[in-house]
Each structure stands twice: as C-alpha cells, then as structure tokens.
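Problem 12. The chain below contains 440 residues. Write out its predicted structure in token notation.
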Amino acid sequence: MLSNFYSDSDYIVVMGLGKTGMACVNFLVKHNIPVCVMDNRANPPGLDILKQKYPDIPYIINRFDAEILSQASEIVISPGLSRKEAALAEAHAKGIPIIGEIELFARHVNAPVVAITGSNGKSTVTTLLGEMAIKANWNVKVGGNLGTPAVDLLSTPAPDIYILELSSFQLESIYSLNPQASVILNISEDHMDRYDDDLEEYIAAKQTIYQGDGTIIINSDDHYVGAISLTGRQTLSFSLYDENADFSICEQYLAHNNKPLLATKKMRLQGSIMRANALAALALGTAVNLPMPAMLDALQTFGGLTHRCSWVANKQGVDFFNDSKGTNVGATIAAICGLERKSVLIAGGEGKGADFSALKPVVAEHCDACVLIGRDAKIIAQALDDVVAIYYASDMEMAVKQAAELGDVVLLSPACASFDMFNNYEHRGEVFEEIVMNVG
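Solution.
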C-alpha cells in the first residue's frame, strides 16, 4: 500500500503528529489533498486517532524516510521539528518545499490577521486583544501557538479578525502570511538549543512576522526590536519610558500621543510588564480599528492567564505567585521585576542551552534568596555567583517549604522548560499550586 501510494500520488507529507499534525491532516483531507504522515517517535500522540479516523492514510513511525520525503510535492512540518533535521535538509536540497501549519492557514485565510510574537508576553497580549475584540462585539478567532491550531480557526462565514500567537518555530516556515498588524513584543535568549546559541538566527525567525505590507508595532524599549531595519512600512510604537512613543505612560496614565486614556490604577492587573502588554495591545487594536472604549473596558476586566505570574494564595503571611509559564530567562526577569516586591525565587528545570547570566543583577536587586530545582539547577547557581543565598530542592514540595521560610513573597518562575520533572509547564504550575494550598 505504501509503495503504491508514494509512486502514484502527488502527495504531501505531514511530519510530526500531535495536535498540530492532526489539524494539518484534517485540513488537507478536507481539501482532497493526498496526505501521508511521518513521525520519528514509536507511539506519537494522535496516532490512535489517525488510524481510527483515517484508516486509509499511510503513515511511517519511529523514523524519518528521506527517500519518501524527497518525492513529496510538499512537506508540512510540526513546529517542534527543526528544519536542520537530516532527512528534511536532504529533501530541501532537492527542492521540496517545506512549510508549516501557519503557511497552510495563510494560503486560505479569509479575514484580516493580527500576528503576535515575542520571547515573553505573547500569550497575554494575544488573549487580551481577543478580549478587546469581544468587548467590541467583533466575531474573533484566537489561537495559533496559544490554544487552537490556526487551520482549525478558519471558518465560513469569515470572522471579523483572526488573532494569532506565533512562536519562532512556527515563523520559520511561513511565506504567504500578510498580517494587517504584527508585533515582536521583545527579544531575549530562548530556544538556544534549537538555534545553536545563535541569537541572530532566533531574531531572523521572529522577524518573519513582519512580512507583507501591514502595520508594524514597535517596542521602543527593546534594543533588539529597535535594531531591526524597517523601510517604507507604517509603524506604531509603544514605550514605558519614552513619552514620544505613539502609546506610552504619561503621569500614571496609559496614553496615546500624550493624550491620557486610562489611569493605570484602574487596570485589574498591575505591574510594569502588564502595562507594557496593555500598550502593545492598544497599538495592535488601533492598527486594526478596534474602538478605543471597548479596548479600555477590556483592560479594566482582564484577569490574566493561568500560570503567568498569577497570585495563588496567602499562606501564613506568605504570598505565593505562579509563573510556571516563565520558561526562559527573559520571562523570569519580567516576572521578578513585575512583582515590584522582593521575592524568594523558585527556578530551574531544563535550560534549553540558555545563558542565565542576565538573571544575576535582577536577582541581586529584587530577590531575597533562590531555591533551585531540576536538571540545570547548578548551572543557574553558577550564573548567579552567590549574589543571594542559594538553596537546592529535590522536588517542588521541598522547594515550596524552603522558600516559604525565607521571605514573605514566593515566586515560581523557572526560567527553564519543565520536561525534566513534569509533563509541561501547566503540570508544573498545577503541582506548585496544589502544594501551596496545603501549606500550613
């Protein structure tokens, strides 16, 4: 069956199953495009669903077949797969197009798109902008790297707007996307294991979000974002510190062109990081003509995301905050500074090849102590160089108990991925919160 399919069909290979891979298979089948599936895992997630739903679709597991890939009309890769994978590189060298799920979406999109990326804050800004559109009674579809795969969002009749969170992995393989508004919120080291410690390669992937002719939103406070060359494009800027930016903070107000819009104290979520996210969302909304009253209304009710610097509880006089979604150094710096209180930091896990040295001055200024867990705990400790007291914990329960004895604010913000100890960052956050609720 396999040999006949590959010799007789003009087929597309979906590489990598899971949620995104299955979404691509569903989309291609819906459009009557012959498809086969390939995954190098022995039992990839979604395989049982594939076999039950599409018994006639051929699949290969536990390996990548370079010969079959080199005969495909196109290859659709899941975001977790690097284009440097040997079988993919061989197919690419033979001229086989390699795309991602977002490219499939872009070829069939039927309404304006807002595209959001950044090392930190992209899920918050994506969700917040979606809430703004809902307040304006727009028909909005929100997803991408956050939640629903983009191809699953496509609908008829078309919505008023699609709002997508996009990761650098997704951005590596898009060519047709032309967002009405796009933003790189910020850039800090992340996924350096994927990019061979080459920050410029990571930035280049992020910069793909600017393709097309839509409005570009610029974070004037970010050195790397500000250094990206932009010619002949309409832009809107935001800044926490420069009142000359299009969206800024003026005398404790969110402001547009120095005109006060909303007192920052009226925002449900406080802290400098949330103010920056609010300014970014306002700029994106303005670029797509969302009404200002609806956007300001959303800012006063938006409660944030689960596992993103959220207050958990006060136990025996200690406030506990869950920022399990802080999976890189930049996110942890943002969480530490955003609390605007001294904290005891719980960090550690799988560091993804990151340089943790940027944590040192922030921890020195804003933390009373650090409790380190996971595989790369000692690497983080070396980077901190004893600027605060360092403690080690074998598991999350021990970490929470130690941290609660060291200060009155405890912040879980690992600066690392979770896979050495947990299923994912959600699982890590849930374990943390369960332990916190049992304190005392």
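Discussion. The domain at 310-437 is CATH 3.90.190.20 (Protein-Tyrosine Phosphatase; Chain A). Students who got a different answer should revisit the alignment rule from Section 12.3.
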